[in-house]
Structures are given as C-alpha cells and as structure tokens.
Amino acid sequence: MGRLAVGVAVGVAVATCAVAGVVVGRRLRSRRKWRRVVGVLRELEDSCETPVGRLKQVVDAMAVEMHAGLASEGGSKLKMLLTFVDRLPTGSEIGTYYALDLGGTNFRVLRVQLGGTRSSILSKDVKRQRIPEHLMTSTSEDLFDFITSKLKQFVEQEETVSEAAQSRTRELGFTFSFPVKQISIRSGFLIRWNKGFAIEDMIGCEIVERLQGALMKKGLDMWATVLVNDTVGILALGHYYDADTVAAVKIGTGTNACYMERADAIIKCQGLLTSSGGMVVNMEWGNFWSSHLPRTTYDIDMDLESPNPNDQGFEKMISGMYLGDIVRRVILRMCEESDIFGPVSSKLLTPFVLEMPLMAAMHEDESPDLKEVAAILRETLEIQDVPLKARRLVVKVCDVVTRRAARLAAAGIVGILKKIGRDGTGGITGSRSKSDAKMRRTVVAVEGSLYTSYMMFREYLHEALNEILGEDVAQHVVLRTTEDGSCVGAALLAALHSSSSSSSSSDGLHRRQ
Ligand code: BGC
C-alpha cells in the first residue's frame, strides 16, 4: 500500500471515530436526559405513595379531627359546620319547588315537581350556565344580579306549572357551596371564598338577605326557604331514594362531605335539641390537614402561589380544580430537566391551563400511539411533536396524581364511617374487632365530575375503600351516585321546610334552657 493510501485510510478511520464519538456522545447525553425525566417521575411516584397503612393513618386523623371540630369552635381545621338540617326527605314531599345552585364553575336553576309518594319526581327542569369569569371576582351585587336575572328568565319561560302553583309565592332552596356559618336553616354568613371566587364585599355577610334583596329588585315573588351546602343537597336526595344514606361526598371542582351526626355529639353547641336527635354537619373537609398526607413539592408550590395559601389542603390534593395543575407542574419540571418535550412554552407556564377533563382524557387515552395525549399537549400546552415514550410518561404522571387523589378521598370517606361507627371497628374509641361488630347497610351518596365522569378515579377510589375496610366490611358500604343532588336536594329540603308543608315546624330546633 502506498503512503497516500495509508494516509487516506487513517484519515477515514479518524473521521469515522470522530463521527462515532459524536453519535455516542449525543446518545449518552440524550440517555442522561431521559434518565433525568424518568427520575422526575420516580420521585413523584415515591412522594405520592399511599400504601394502605398510610391511608389508615389518614382515616384515623380524619376521625380525630372530626371530634376536635365538633368539640370547640376553631378546634380543628375541619370546621364541622352546623346546617340546621335535622330531618331528611322521606319520599312523601309534594308540590313544585325551585332551587338555585351556586358553587363552582357552573350555576344551575331548577324546578322540580314532587309526587308526594314513593320518592316520585314527576318532572325536573334544570338550566345550567357557566359563571362568567369576571363575576367571580366582581361585586356581590353583580353576582346576585346575574343569578336572579337567569332565574327570572327561567320562571318566565315556564309553561307546565299549574295556575295554583303560579298564584302562590314560589319557594326555593338556595345551594351556596362555600364555607358558611349558619344560624338557622335559612340564614348564614359567608366565612370565606374558595374555588377561584373572591368577592370581598360579601365576606361576613348574610347570604339569604342578599339573595332575597336581589329577587325583590327583579320583581320576583320567590322565597328562599332553605340555605344549604351542595353536599347537604346530595345527602337529602340520597336519603329521599334510600333511607340508609348517612353521608354525602362531592368531588368536583372542589370537594367536601357532610353526614348525619347525633346532636349530643356536637359538643360545641351544648344543649342543642333537634326533633330527630340528629343534625347534618357540613364538614368542609376540603380544609382537612394531617401530617400523614403525602405532599410533594408541586403541592407546596401550588399552594404558595394560590390565592388561599395554607387553606383547603385536602381539596388541593383531591379536587378537579387542582389535579390538572399538579400534572402541568410535573410536565414543566420534566421540560426543564430535558429537551425531550422541546422548549418550555408560555402555555406550560400558565397556571390552571390544563383543566381536569383534559387531564382525564390524556389518562384514559387508549389509542396505541396516544393520539389524544399528543393533541392535548400540542393544543393546550403548546408542546409539539412529543415522542411516544414521553407521551407514555405523561399518562403515567396523570395516573399517579389521580390515584393519590382517589385513594385519599376513600380514606376520607372511611374516616366519616369510623366517626359514626360504621367502619366495622366499633367507632373511634371502640375496641371490638371487625368480626364481632355487626355491620349495617351504609349508603354514602356521591356526586361530582371526578367520581361520575372519570372512570379511573372512581376505580381507584373503590379499590382503596376495599383495601382499607376489608371485603367483609366493604360489602355493607354502598357508594351511590345521585344526579343533580346539590339542587334537587335543596328543592326537597325547601319542600320539607315549606310554610305550606304540614311536616314543617318552624325549624324543629330548640336549645335546652
Ligand atoms: C367548598 C364546599 C363545597 C365543596 C364542593 C369547597 O370548596 O368549601 O363548601 O361543598 O367545595 O363544591
């Protein structure tokens, strides 16, 4: 071989090595980046872990906090608010009643015609409307003007209502799903806003008075008979259909639960006598907190940046308003760790841009190439051309966040069952074993988009309930989905407390002298 040929051969070999070196270097770098992204997921998985032992600690903490909240005002982060609802509908309510339901992204007006026997709802008419965003932070006058004008339109359009019903004052149940300190069944003061509402001039104000004033201004002859939380409406509807219903849970934009408590267990209100011996307590469980809750850095950052830091800690881990934002934060972190998702887009930096239905759609994307995930990343988060293996990671992130939420919600439900002695252990102080505790059929009414429309969430919740309670006990616990309970239930309670109803005693409540 001549010198030239040797030179060329060496040159080619050097060039080949250099190219190979670049390729290998690139591969190594990209592997390292990929490992970092996977590391973000692993870290998330670890910090979201909810083994059954931890869930049981959450159950105990919930039951203990319930006791504390009932013992004294401010005794716990759980407010355990009195609702003055001491009886629940039985199925014999009769007549036409209305409801106004304000509490989340949507606002609803309803008319219902009750048959009077065997829980028969003869007709139901509901109109839903998204609350214009600016009204959520405007003035109470603007907000009440808006809802009463929608109610007016609704009433003016009705055709099927009998003349007799039209000639008397229409009665309505007002569902107002925020923390409210009630002083009677139809009167209460707003403690604070949440779920994106922030109307300063209403904090501390009496709510029904505002509504009644706005109804008058609109020339509407309507009377708000009851003021209720959405969970109380759900419990009322649940009980209307099934007398074994003892509690209700809402898992939608926000989350909360209520249940029927013995009046003598409400120690902070000593001497409270009710005609039934019980009263529905609005737990406001969204504000529950315990050191046993698995908290991540994403939760901490989201809370700090929220308009209500340190409040609604449980809600921020569980409810629809927040889950998508936790996922967005994790994807953002992955983007910062690697260029596998391309550059950080401005959308990815926008809080709450990834709403819960989109997150659920990504989680439940069953197409082999995760088409839906790609479309949502592209259209909502402006992340283009994400490779399949990275899309799989996104699905996994949704899974981890949703699974934690569902399992914690299950622990919350068992906490309530424990407090009322329906978890098969004989109550919080009971020492009976599961085997000798006699279980009664126990129904919990559940509503909210996470539970009703997000299959994976619901499956995880049921799975955790079985794990915590054990199959023997879990078979006696029924989670029953109700529909439009927050407003139908309010109308039912309006019927139960109506001035024209024979079963209505002004409130049925007395204080021992
Ligand atoms: C509110 C509760 C409400 C729940 C579900 C929470 O943010 O504080 O009053 O019941 O959302 O709508």
Automatic annotation (TrEMBL):
Pathway: Carbohydrate degradation; glycolysis; D-glyceraldehyde 3-phosphate and glycerone phosphate from D-glucose: step 1/4; Carbohydrate metabolism; hexose metabolism
GO molecular function, one term: ATP binding
Domain Hexokinase N-terminal as annotated: residue spans: 41-240
A GO biological process held by the record: intracellular glucose homeostasis
Pfam families: Hexokinase_1, Hexokinase_2
Enzyme Commission numbers on file: 2.7.1.-
Official protein name in the record: Phosphotransferase
Organism in which the protein naturally occurs: Linum trigynum
Higher taxonomy: Eukaryota, Viridiplantae, Streptophyta, Embryophyta, Tracheophyta
